[in-house]
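Students often ask why we bother encoding 3D structure as a string. The short answer is that it lets us treat folding as translation between two languages. Here is a chain of 285 residues written in the first language.
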Amino acid sequence: MKRMIKILLVLAAALLAIYMLLRWQGALLFWDEAAPGRYEVFGVDVSNYQGAVDWPALAEQGVDFAFLKATEGSSLVDKRFSANWENARSAGVLAGAYHFLSYDSPGETQADNFIATVPVSPGALPPVVDIEFYGDYIEHPKSAEEVRPILDALLARLEAHYGQKPILYVTNESYRLYVAGRYGGYPLWCSFPILSPFWREWTFWQYSHHAVLDGYDGAERYIDLNVFRGGPDELRAMTRPAPPEIRQRRAALCGRRPAGKHDTGDLPACTVHRQRGLSPAPGGG
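And here it is in the second language, the structure alphabet:
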């Protein structure tokens, strides 16, 4: 009996040590843990389900970036996208748009839908392709041979149009089936609740699907939380640069030297946002 107690105590101590190590490294985040201290850059992703979003309110809670649902398949457009796109950027939140991949229509027409909806905007994060399962494909996913031609065509069109390599949003299963071993040059946005997918080279980590923040009124009570694997400058370096003439003009308006190539361009000039380290780039406003 004493030996069993000792074994249990050793196991408990080992588990506690592992827990503390994971927490210290930021590899373990709780579902309701907004703006976690181990990460410099924190964000959300939203769609029509969150309803009308108060972006200044989210920014005040530490939201530095956001991915906004724009389109799905070859015809669906999220009815809140335009408002979210304009209002998030006006609030100083770095924004990117995402497309929910359909397995039932060609990649070319899905790209047409996204391109018709999402403007080419300085300061925007790269477009995102959301690769997950829906309907019957949850239980019976299509093969890689069927999905990859759709995905390849979509990615090629988006990269050519926006001049940025798209981000791939993946679940554990969609990564295993479709992405592993083929799309190594694309930034990964991994959905893996609570425990970091430290065995992958992720760029963004969606660690919660069940958080509650102030600032939205939709039927969906919860909002997804994300972190970026890097600092503010590294995130800003992923955004689309403003044309040189815009950077020069904004630099003149602000009375500062010309901005670097990652100026956000169309953010309000000469404003300073409250976010942790994500005030607009020099000359970008």
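Translate back mentally: The first strand starts at residue 42 and ends at 46. Keep this in mind for the problem set.
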